[in-house]
Write a structure and sequence with these properties.
By secondary structure, the protein is α+β, with helices and mostly antiparallel strands. It contains three helices and seven strands, in the order βαααββββββ. The strands form three sheets. It has a three-stranded antiparallel beta sheet. The radius of gyration is 15 Å and the shape is globular. The two termini are 24 Å apart. The model has no long low-confidence stretch (mean pLDDT 93).
Length: 128
């Protein structure tokens, strides 16, 4: 039920983003109606995990291996910000690592990650 943007923000912009910049990046995608949708979002940690695929190696921008389904473009950043914020320290958010499938808390101001936007397919009711 998830649709992912093929290129993450690093591949698209050729630079790392802070958490707030990643949030703006997704907002701009929605304003521009990227792929004819306006409901792109930052993934949760659990959503990010759904595309970690250890049997499918790709390369990141530096030639290192990351593990994403082969439908995604090579050259994406190794890590992605998620929308998951720490409950007691609002300066921290989770970044997901597509090299080893782990996630860690990082300061939201750190400019060393990308973001891979996602949207949820909505069930469309058929007309009778």
């Amino acid at each position: 039920g998830l649709m992912w943007k093929n290129a993450d923000s690093y591949l698209h912009l050729d630079k790392w983003l802070s958490w707030d910049e990643a949030k703006v990046y997704v907002k701009v995608l929605n304003q521009e109606g990227f792929a004819d949708y306006e409901d792109w979002k930052m993934p949760t940690r659990k959503e990010a995990l759904t595309i970690y695929e250890p049997s499918s190696p790709l390369t990141d921008p530096f030639g290192d291996v990351i593990y994403l389904p082969s439908v995604f473009s090579a050259g994406a950043g190794q890590t992605s910000w998620t929308k998951t914020i720490h409950k007691t320290d609002l300066k921290l958010a989770i970044r997901f690592n597509y090299f080893n499938g782990d996630f860690k808390w990082y300061k939201k101001g750190l400019k060393s990650h990308g973001v891979r936007p996602v949207r949820v397919f909505k069930k469309i009711e058929k007309e009778k």
